[in-house]
Amino acid sequence: MRKWGKWVAEIREPNKRSRIWLGSYTTPIAAARAYDTAVFYLRGPSARLNFPDLVLQEDDLRDISAASIRKKATEVGAKVDALETSLHHASASSSESSNPCRVFRKPDLNKYPESSDED
């Protein structure tokens, strides 16, 4: 995670010092899925993946150049990022609509708790 809040993904090319930039995402799952896609196409089915059940092997990626791997990984990452972001916003809005009066404030830990008159 970068200090400005984005999650990034990149991978080293085999037997090279160069890296393939896979993108910057708002969710860690999207970055991990982009990485999984790239490592799968670089190392094959024996690659160690974050989400092994979610990688789909497609026959249309015969060119395993850095550019084609980057393109495929960023497509997957962008789709997952959009889905995760929309799910997060949907759950946040549904929780707000179910109880709109519920507001939590962080307590000031430097103060003693106030006693209530109900005691």
UniProtKB/TrEMBL annotation:
Biological processes, Gene Ontology terms: ethylene-activated signaling pathway
Its subcellular locations are: Nucleus
Q: Give one Pfam hit by family name.
A: AP2
- Amino acid composition bias (Low complexity), ranges on this chain: 87-98
Residue numbers spanned by region Disordered: 87-119
Q: Which spans of this chain does the record mark as coiled coil?
A: none
Check the record and name the Gene3D superfamilies matching this protein: AP2/ERF domain
A GO molecular function assigned to this protein is:
DNA-binding transcription factor activity
Q: Domain AP2/ERF, which positions? A: 1-52
Q: Name one GO cellular component term.
A: nucleus
Q: Which keywords has UniProt assigned to this entry?
A: DNA-binding, Ethylene signaling pathway, Nucleus, Transcription, Transcription regulation
Q: Describe its function.
A: Probably acts as a transcriptional activator. Binds to the GCC-box pathogenesis-related promoter element. May be involved in the regulation of gene expression by stress factors and by components of stress signal transduction pathways.
Q: Which PANTHER family match?
A: ETHYLENE-RESPONSIVE TRANSCRIPTION FACTOR RAP2-1-RELATED
Q: Which family does the entry's similarity section mention? A: Belongs to the AP2/ERF transcription factor family. ERF subfamily.
Q: What is this protein called?
A: ERF008 protein
UniProt source species? Hibiscus syriacus (Rose of Sharon)
Upper taxonomic lineage: Eukaryota, Viridiplantae, Streptophyta, Embryophyta, Tracheophyta
